[in-house]
Amino acid sequence: MTLTFNTNTSSMAIGNMLNKSSSELQKSLQRLATGLKVNSAADGAAEMAVGVTMDSQVRGYSVAASNIQQGLGMLNIAETGLQDIVTHLQNLRDIAVGASSSTNTATQFTNYQAQAAAEIASITSITSNTKYDTNVLLDGSVSGGAAFNIQIGANSGDAINIKTAFTDNTAATLTVTQSTIASTANATTLLGQVDAALSTVTGNLATIGAFQNRLTDSLDVNSTAQTNISASLASIRNTDVAKETANVARLQILQSAGAYALAQANTQPQLALQLLPR
Predict the structure, then answer these.
(1) Which of 59, 79, 74, 54 is nearest to 133 (CA)?
(2) pLDDT tens digits for 21-38?
């Protein structure tokens, strides 16, 4: 070993190692403090990039779940409106069956006509007032417009177009147009119209039910995907506490040993001084 005054290479080398262990200790302590294994791109550029992508997916699925719930709420409102229309159509059918008998008097026909008009007016009111926010659901304004998409996933193209669930169910479109009931012939016409309308409305209910099932299935798929991606993200991002605490203990020992070694190395120039004559 060469003894010099001007350059203490041992001290420099040990100082470099001490700085390295101190830097690694700082990183380990930061991982424990934040709970994150990757706190900057320097900790792992690839891991950070993958983590950002996965985080986008998790957040996207969370927002999509909210979209699905809104879509289901919209379908549920439309279903309730259609069920009410079915009730009024059944009432109309009862009226038509009652008015189809030749035993009715003119007064009774008049009463049947008034009842039928009230039921038709109720159907009109339901189709006009069944709404989700500002969307009128049962008058054909939604189904007659552009695609009505529900974004069900985290990525582009993950959507279901549910516009066909909101077809026109007004009395006119259902062809329940026989408003005059002055004879059994009128009643028979109304009966045929109501039966056809019931068939149409129950078909519309089936369409709504199919979309409800699709959205519910999508919600389940989203939940599973979100859980699995979150687990993968955790393995990339989160600190392994047991491993990191062990690493901190190791680095603290190295730091203490390095500090001691540096102190000893700094005394070497004094050895050179002792060689000089007094």
Answers:
(1) 74
(2) 777 777 777 777 777 777
- Give the residue extent of every domain in the chain: 9-35+239-274, 45-237
Q: Which two tokens stand for residue 1?
A: 């070993």
Strand partners, 132: 135
Task: Find residue 160's DSSP bridge partners.
Answer: 150
Between 213 and 242, the higher pLDDT residue? 213
Count CB neighbours of 62 within 10 A: 14
Q: What is the pTM of this model?
A: 0.75
Rounded to whole angstroms, how far apart are CA atoms 59 and 68?
A: 14
Query: What is the Cα–Cα distance from 230 to 221, expressed in whole angstroms?
Result: 14
Reduced to 3 states (helix: H, G, I; strand: E, B; else coil), residue 55 is helix
SS3 41: helix
pLDDT score for 48: 78
What are residue 135's DSSP bridge partners?
132
- Amino acid code (one letter) for 169: N
Helix count (H) and strand count (E) of the chain?
6, 4
Q: Which pLDDT score, from 0 to 100, does residue 44 have?
A: 72
What is the token pair recorded at 172? Answer: 């006119």
CATH topology for 45-237 is: f41 fragment of flagellin, N-terminal domain (1.20.1330)
Residues belonging to the chain: 278
Helix (H) or strand (E) holding 169: none
Distance CA 240, CA 275 (A): 53
